[in-house]
Amino acid sequence: MAAAETFGAAIGAPGRWALHGKTALVTGGTRGIGRATVEELAALGATVHTCSRKEAELAERLKEWEAKGFLVTGSVCDLSVRDQRERLLREVADRFGGKLNILVSPNYSSLPWLHFMNMFGNRMGNLNLGIRVYELGLEF
Fold first, then answer.
1. What structural domains and CATH numbers belong to the chain?
2. Burial of 73 (0-12, 13-18, 19+ CB in 10 A)
3. pLDDT on residue 89
4. pLDDT of 16 over the 90 cut
5. N or C: lower Cβ tally within 10 Å for the chain?
6. Mean of the pLDDT values across residues 68-73?
């Protein structure tokens, strides 16, 4: 019965597991599944960076998350543009001191992340491109 009682617990509720000290990149994090993912990871204690093609929408979400006390940063990025992907990865590397634990890409195909793999080679560990939720333990 304990499992039933904790099922559906509120985001960040006591008794849930924690991600304190972990870093996450969530692409397309300003709406839908991406937004829910950002909020869940941040509520569990992760430091999250997200990106969006829409600057105004990103700014609005960042204000909302700051008001909730979430550690979320963001940048404007169109992942279909190689230069913007590379800039995003450099920014994330700088922001997180070269360590990325979680990569979530809910709204895009896996193809941009093939470029990511080429940039960082074997340091990515076991990556399953089919599910597009990656726990990396990356240092770059």
1. 18-139 (3.40.50.720)
2. middle
3. 85
4. no
5. N
6. 98
| CB atoms near residue 83 (< 10 Å) | 9
User: What number is the average pLDDT over the span 60-89?
Assistant: 93
* Rg, C-alpha atoms of the chain: 15
Q: Which residues pair with 32 in a beta bridge?
A: none
**What pLDDT score does 14 carry?**
62
Q: How far apart are CA 139 and CA 66, in angstroms?
A: 27
* Average pLDDT of the chain to the nearest whole number: 76
Q: Which long-range contacts (CB under 8 A, 24 or more apart) does 63-67 make?
A: 65/38, 65/39
Residue pair 100/25 in contact (Cβ under 8 Å)? The answer is: yes
